[in-house]
Amino acid sequence: MGTVVDSTNKEATGSLPINKKVKVVFVLGGPGSGKGTQCANIVEHFGYTHLSAGDLLRAEIKSGSENGTMIQNMIKEGKIVPSEVTIALLQRAIQENGNDKFLIDGFPRNEENRAAFERVTGIQPDFVLFFDCPEEEMEKRLLSRNQGREDDNIETIRKRFKVYMESSLPVIEYYKSKEKVQKIDAAKPVNEVFNAVKAVFTPSGGK
Ligand code: UDP
Ligand code: MG
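That is the input. Now the predicted structure with uridine-5'-diphosphate docked in place:
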């Protein structure tokens, strides 16, 4: 087996173990909380590479992979794609990229995602950037963003909110208990949210 990042990990079994030292920030928050928008700003100002789990899954559908139909059906239902599929995509993206700083956006989405990622890659996040936003605001944004996404309809949006509350919030609670969460008020305008984000990434202003 190849070298893994965290030596506490004794059972890394991924087909492509990550063999370089990387810094990972998980970017979490409900659907429409502004993760993708703010990640683009962070990339520009702080030199991270942005890996959106949702974008990687959508690219996998487009590529015509054998998992494509399964992934497409899960996304349409707002369900969480099996960990091994998402983790393999993230692992490959980290491995193929020359950078050593990554924003992982929209993952882990449940406790099983979280535990499997740590186990397989040996990576623990430096911290978790959590975009906190009321559901009414997120719903409004999703319904008006027109990105042509099959899951931005009211029926799927309701399902995504339910999965977020039931499965994703516990992941944020887990990292809170480890004092790794940097919470951002995400209901404000984009530039105000980015000011708060900047403070987190600027050495004197947080982590
Ligand atoms: N998804 C998943 N696992 C992930 C990330 C995304 O299964 O780690 C699926 C899930 O069905 C989700 C959809 O992809 O509802 C869209 O995720 P994305 O992060 O793009 O959008 P968000 O819900 O954050 O707006
Ligand atoms: Mg997104």
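The longest strand covers residues 23-29.
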